[in-house]
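Sample log: Amine oxidase.
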Amino acid sequence: YIDMADRNPSIVVVGAGVAGLAAAKKLEEYGFNDVTVLEASEKFGGRVATAALGDVCVDTGAQYIHGASEKNPVYCLLKKSGHLNQIPEMGKETFYSNKGHKVDANFARCAYEAGEEIIRYRGSNTGRSLGEHYAEKTQSVIDSLQDDDEKPRMQSVFALVGKDMLIDVGASDLHRISLDSWQYYINMGDSLNVAGYDGSMFQLVDMLLEDFPKDRLLLKREVSKIKWDGSFSVYPVCVICENGEEILADHVIVTISLGCLKAQASSLFIPSLPTEKMEVIDKLCFGNIAKIFLEYEEAFWENDVGSISLIYEDDTPASVSTNKMQWLKNVQSFSVLRPKERLMLDQMTVKCSPKSILCTKWRSNKFIKGSYAFLPVGVDGQVMDTLAQPLVGSRHPDQDLQILFAGEATMKTLYGTVQGALLSGHREADRLAAHYKKTVAPTSTTSLDKQV
């Protein structure tokens, strides 16, 4: 029997998104030197991704720092490295109706803030849907208005707030989202959009890759089977890749998306995952967001415009859901990347064709299968703790962490965020460090993990 503190365990991390890379980097900092990262696709980063469009690099995946404050480790890392210095002011918000008329910005902003206050309600054990709550509360605001002309205008802005929430959550219908979704959530402050600038989110991936041994980062290694609770030579776990390669390990940290777990969990693990874990994977929802990038030869908007929101005059809060036949109605806002000096017409009737178009396809990406997790009605966020529970073998259950789980969907306090992914990776690295009685404090990352 070898004392745990003297062991040099073999650790495999499945998935090189933010959770996987954060776990691997922190394990290295703890002094573990047999850490291998397996990534199924051709590039690192997972749902933090970029693509070239013209001469600009755009964020096709995560673009928001949810909480631009010192509480947020993602913000701290990017700020410390100087990557947030180049982000310019976002420019002013403008609002247009679907008839092409400019909507009074003051009215739209005030109505939007009123709607946002209602929709951001943090329910606790209500068992209700966000859609039901939002339709009910906005209706009572509309009923209280004296001016009948203002009612439909207010209603259409409230609908825009609902559509924006569908994007935040990744859902197709407000009635699918639990009103109790943010019961355990940690609010780290206002969001910062880093899309399309040199300080893009991908800088975080580069920072996590820094100093990690390149020969331990293996791309195009799709994992087809994880055999655990076995005896493979002296190791309890055997990871089998699609190409037939087998990697033996003491511990495997699984960081694949909830979408992939939904598709593969029943066939990926031998023996199967415990029933309670499979039930959680089944219960949780994995949303989908698509981004469309349009590149124009010349800008047709005013130089100081940062975003254009579209308000559909016949929309109501109760009608907010996505519809495949009317998907265009759910393209409700445009963000300007690198605005050029041109005038936008007051009536948006100018015929202008984009020079190039780029559309993301996260749902059909076989190694991701969507955007991020959300809680459906009737599901308590505590189920994410069940998903995060490590699996121990039957031989030495008291000293045995064979399969560990990380990723945003394992964080009831921060799911759907980049810092949720990052901190979940740190959590599992800390778990293994404690297991091996490692006490060396990590250097370059953050002590904020303890708050979660």
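Observation: Residues 339-349, 446-452 have pLDDT under 50 and may be disordered.
Observation: Residues 115 and 158 are 5 Å apart (CA to CA).
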